[in-house]
Design a protein that fits this description.
With 203 residues, this protein is of the alpha/beta class. Helix content is 29%, strand content 12%.
Length: 203
């Protein structure tokens, strides 16, 4: 038993495990301070997750490259995290998960570990841009499905042009388009002679 069990702070993972193994341990709070190697070890997940807080003692020198999204979140949750640079390498499902947007966007770079096998069909323009921004993107084929506003946005022209195909999710609501936009509309995989109106120069 630990006689002063209520006063445990800044312990290593090994010490926290010792604490948790005490006969009088009853979910007392504790804080951790240990190396990235120990904090990120999957075997220590429960000990780290149950800590009131944790600091990475070697955060300035630790190898923070090719982290999974989960490990990047662990890094960012450290009490002494101060925008240290990291890179991410994870599956497309995890990279493209909306819940992980901030973690991926703040990474110095990201790679999609299963880019050759991932389902890259019916992507929004935003997801296609995410795909194309991966450090290991090499012209992999993708298809789009998005609103007319996003498909026809000039800022998205390259993403749409490079798609294997594109569908317009709200294709029945297209009016007052230029000739170029009408051609874009008519090139959609789900275009089925929908009516549209033109507004363009005489030239």
């Amino acid at each position: 038993a630990i006689s002063d069990i209520d006063n445990v702070t800044d312990v290593t993972v090994a010490q926290a495990d010792l604490l948790r193994g005490a006969s009088n341990y009853d979910d007392e709070t504790y804080s951790l301070s240990d190396t990235w190697e120990n904090l990120s070890n999957a075997n220590n997940t429960a000990t780290v997750e149950d800590a009131d807080s944790y600091a990475i003692s070697d955060i300035e020198t630790a190898n923070l490259t090719n982290l999974s999204v989960t490990l990047a979140d662990l890094l960012r949750g450290a009490s002494n995290y101060d925008d240290e640079t990291y890179t991410v390498s994870d599956t497309w499902v995890n990279i493209s998960d909306a819940d992980n947007t901030e973690t991926v966007e703040d990474a110095d770079s990201y790679a999609i570990s299963d880019i050759e096998a991932a389902s890259l069909t019916d992507l929004s323009v935003a997801l296609a841009d995410l795909l194309r921004g991966a450090s290991n993107y090499d012209g992999e084929t993708y298809s789009l499905s998005d609103t007319w506003a996003n498909i026809s946005n000039a800022d998205n022209a390259a993403t749409v042009a490079d798609a294997d195909s594109y569908a317009i999710s709200d294709i029945d609501n297209v009016t007052d388009v230029t000739v170029a936009q009408a051609d874009l509309l008519r090139g959609a995989s789900n275009y089925d002679d929908e009516t549209y109106s033109l507004s363009d120069t005489w030239e």
